[in-house]
């Protein structure tokens, strides 16, 4: 044991990990500590000081809850300070004490007692810390008392410091003074440590000082922060240091908090103190009121780490206890003690071999059998690795080291040795995570629970590589349903690699997505998600509309559907209809925070429910895809889309949703990411459609117009148009389809001149001049040819063009030639013509084949620019016609109609968009008109500024508004085109051309002149200068800017003109596809026919199947199956192309030749390899199938620790040696544990070789301990005096006490019996009742496990047993219902407590009829040199399920009321399946294994 004297920084600092015993528990528990998950706060947390409000809250909360320690009584010490000053026993000088501490007071005695003379006071050192002269990174610090409860510190870190609850706790311990590591090992350690912390969201806890292992961790964090981007997040590094050993700590004292406090790192002047490490992010400075005493922080750090490891973190409905791991570098005796306590408490340790001293000693012997780890071997290793201080080791210390190392190595499942081997090395991060999984496997859980726990850890760490190599192996076959909870967690946490892994291992999305799953997913939408706020808005509107009082409306899926319809467009129907019943499970979404909450639903329960749930959705994969897309989860959406069936429509719908969300997203980066993802989905749709079109053009075109029930009864083509996916619409296959629609039933290869000729001379249709696609129309004399010809959109279009040109010609003729006071017949014809146009516009407005409704149809109609132009032209015509029919306004009416003619002519531009030549040019003109509009704003500034200045300089007090407008705007505008103002320079000044007083309405007012009125008086040099500057900026600068804008627009549009034209071409084709065949004004006949159909005959409007076709069920299934098959081809091609990228080839080549040496030989690769067992030191083979054997046959030892399979297997020979040697390690193990249970007593260390009494052990001097019992009559004397012990008779039945051993007569020495199994390191009887053997009885009550049908369950062919076990309160393990018996009694005390008294006699009968399965010594931690436990295990088995005695037993158990068994009896019982993973005490499990072997049952 290390001395408790003051330690210097030059010695090993015990960075306490688990030094407290298992009985050490925290005083308080934290309840529902909530963590801040604000991304904004996390990004600012260490970059800037707290806001004033947070500072104020922190300044009040910390002093109220956190204290410091102050010495309040000065007792002069014999030692002097480093400066030669007189100091107190606490280490502080007079000046550093409080004023009250120096004055006389009522303390008695002069001995300084820390419990008496040190008081707690509110802390005065906390806040932000900045290291002077280093980076401006802001950290957090607090000075705390060593007695501060862990719950308070944890609350400070998570609530007030804003730290996220960790997924992993890494405690780094080792040497406290600087040590040398190999550069390569140092680099590997730093990279791996930071990687595991950064990828898993772990906290790293160290000693916090700028020396030793703490400095190594700090430099690792520093290197990471310098090389990483801000998006990668920070590494939380918490330093727990002693306040009294910190150099320059005076600068940290601020009674109201330092925001920030400046700290100077001064290694040269620190002396025996230490400086804080500048690369740690948080500091907890532990104060015990002393100065210069090292190790003060160890107990608090131990309790804090234990407390954190007992907390549960829940994310995505999956809760895990925060795992903890100890990482060891170098170190001395204190570090060995830390490792020993960590292993004893079940904490896995990773030892870095090559770091020196303790780490290397353990690494050297970790692979050896325990029997070969001898005192001489440890002495040899110490002489090698502790050369400087080896001479100071005493024999007792070497024995203690041997004992501790044996115990450490014995639990190989918790020990991992990271070494740089011949085969290269894994990174430290993999070693750490693998160590945790290995330790998790060693826990006593049933198979599925154990593997499920490991998977939870891997998902929480986001390490899919660990999951692939360590969890999804041949050792366990996962059922898809078992993966559903973790699938939900991976989705919510946005971990696409795990989603892909689960899909690869059998999870089917159609089975996974249920109502409850979808509810859980929407419950966990990120608050920053735009869709979340839109949902909130929908609920707020419903709340106002229904006026439902203070109760917030509940979220139903139809609320989600409303938002989705806004995003997908009005062409789709609601994806989730309103529920027709009220018993549907609902989500609670209280206002205003939209926190979704499923009451009482856990993830595991979601998937344990009956599968006969009501189907609420058509396509579950679609629902999951929507959920991923609305959150802009790129990889996740891609993985789910690959599972979809209606994949083309899904990709186009996702593109539409993302584009709509990007318009409302305020964050520019998020908006750009959404647009990029939308473009990616569009490319996927193009890729799949290309594969389909290459395979079968006709079926591919069917996909375009197929009605998709899953996406709101819309089509792929409609979705593409709504999303404005121009690349998709411009695809050759889609354009071919549109061309096919455009030509109707005519062959596409008919020349346009043939069409026009047949329009003019329609009898040519019967001559074979025009060819048709269908064979039935090839007959020359059939009337159907005429109907097919005139119903073709191309024919309807050209007929309308001819009609429109005729209308314009007639309109122009009337305006210019035949505009009489009374309308002529030509004008009446125009009125009729216009009336037919009005009727057609009305038809387009009310034509609603999809049932959208009048309002939505009207909004769609008026969203088209050309429709607005049509309405404007018609209204202007009506206004002109009204004026024209009134004689007094005949001329204004003609003016209005003339202007209206211009609007009708502009309508021709829309007609020309069908032309491949003119269409793109019209698009360019439209874009340039926008440029001109914005350019006019710039031009107006110069025109108005110059015009006003010119007018003010030349003209005095012009009052005529029209002439002011001319002078300011009109003349200035004409000047740009070369018309220079007349009087700008006085050269052309003439009084005849102007009006001196401005009275002549036809002449401008004369400019300023002299008193004669003939010579201009204005400054010509100024007006000419202004004119030159004006022309310079307008003619040269602005006009050239306009030309440049036109050029840029032309270049930009020209690249995409073809796509834009092809996209807009659809609108014209669709318009004429649904238009009546007759042109205006003959179209009135068609309108009359439609009126009769709709109003008289009530025939609803139907969309032509050519643009929207609902397929039969079988045909649709076949088509979608074909599409899915080709989608897989597309994805495979994408993967192949990705592998063939030139950059990838170059990278492959560089990786191939990177390690080649100058002699052309390829050295051993150092690249990370897939994780394999046996790579690190420790126990890799310790898995869930490891067998626990009952050994020690010669001595009859019932061991508490089963032999463990070694992890690091250097060769086969060592493995064979270990297997042959392990039975020889049959000495009791638990009975030699250094810390005696429930007592503050340490055993004398007894290595394996010194256990037998025959082995010479001269220094053996065990302490004496006997616990005092309340019932003295039922126990032996204490044993510290010889006289009472002389009355005890050993090896016989002594009164009511049987002191005989099952192993024969035992030796009695000095009046005390000797343990037949050897030394234990403790004399006395400990907490046992009797010296010598303490006999117990263990009844093993079993029955066959049966299914609901009554058949016996089997596993691996063997039958399965159930055993009756009981559990004491506050215990993690179950136990057999046995134990010690009162003298003269047959039943154990514990068994009587769970059985009703009337059944005791019957159970005694069952015991006598039972089968004895074991009788002998029990390796119990309570055993001593003079007292030990021996037991008899009796098997009581009930063969049939209708056994009368079994029913009586169940009726007489106290466990039918769980509340009663828990509160009244203090213990509970239940039947558990017999399995090697049953959470049972180890010695009881060994007995249970023998029972299972007796019946040939599964174990």
Shape: elongated
By secondary-structure content and strand pairing, the structural class works out as alpha/beta
Computed over alpha carbons, the radius of gyration is 45 Å
Q: Flag low-confidence runs.
A: 1-50, 581-616, 1153-1196, 1200-1224, 1456-1465
Strand elements, count: 32
Helical content (DSSP H or I, runs of 4+): 40-55%
Instruction: Name the beta content range.
Output: 5-15%
* First-last Cα distance: 42 Å
| Strand order across the largest sheet | 10-5-6-11-9-8-7-14-15-16-17
The number of helical elements comes to 51
Largest sheet: 11 strands, mixed
Mean pLDDT: 79
Description:
The longest helix has 54 residues. Strands 10-5-6-11-9-8-7-14-15-16-17 form an 11-stranded mixed β-sheet, sandwiched between helices. Strands 18, 25, 28, 29, 30, 31 and 32 form a 7-stranded mixed β-sheet that branches. The chain is built from 51 helices and 32 strands. The protein is 45% helix and 10% strand. The N terminus is likely disordered. The chain is α/β, with parallel strands linked by helices. The two termini are 42 Å apart. The radius of gyration is 45 Å and the shape is elongated. Helix 20 packs across helix 21, helix 30 crosses helix 41 and helix 39 packs antiparallel against helix 41.
List the main descriptive attributes of the protein structure presented here.
alpha/beta; 32 strands; elongated; disordered N terminus; seven-stranded mixed sheet; 1499 residues; eleven-stranded mixed sheet
Annotate the secondary structure layout:
Layout lengths: L38 H6 L7 H14 L1 E5 L4 E5 L5 E3 L10 H4 L11 H4 E5 L3 E6 L7 E7 L4 H11 L7 E7 L8 H18 L1 E5 L5 H16 L8 E7 L15 E6 L18 E6 L9 H13 L2 E4 L2 E4 L2 E6 L3 H12 L4 E4 L4 H9 L9 H11 L9 H16 L4 E4 L9 H14 L5 H15 L2 H8 L8 H13 L3 H9 L4 H4 L2 H9 L6 H17 L10 H12 L34 H4 L13 H11 L3 H8 L5 H18 L3 H28 L1 H9 L10 H8 L2 H4 L2 H12 L8 H9 L22 H8 L2 H24 L8 H22 L7 H9 L2 H21 L4 H17 L1 H4 L6 H37 L6 H16 L43 H54 L9 H14 L16 H27 L2 H12 L23 E2 L18 E2 L13 H10 L42 E3 L15 H4 L7 E2 L2 E2 L9 E2 L2 E2 L9 E4 L5 E13 L9 E2 L2 E2 L1 E7 L11 E2 L8 H6 L5 H10 L1 E8 L8 E12 L5 H8 ...
Parallel strand pairs: 5-10, 6-11, 7-8, 7-14, 8-9, 9-11, 14-15, 15-16, 18-30, 19-24, 25-31
Antiparallel strand pairs: 1-4, 2-3, 5-6, 12-13, 16-17, 20-21, 22-23, 25-28, 25-29, 26-27, 28-32, 30-31
Helix pairs in contact: 5-8, 6-7, 6-13, 9-12, 10-11, 13-14, 14-15, 14-16, 16-17, 20-21, 23-24, 23-25, 25-26, 25-28, 26-27, 26-43, 30-41, 33-34, 33-37, 36-37, 39-40, 39-41
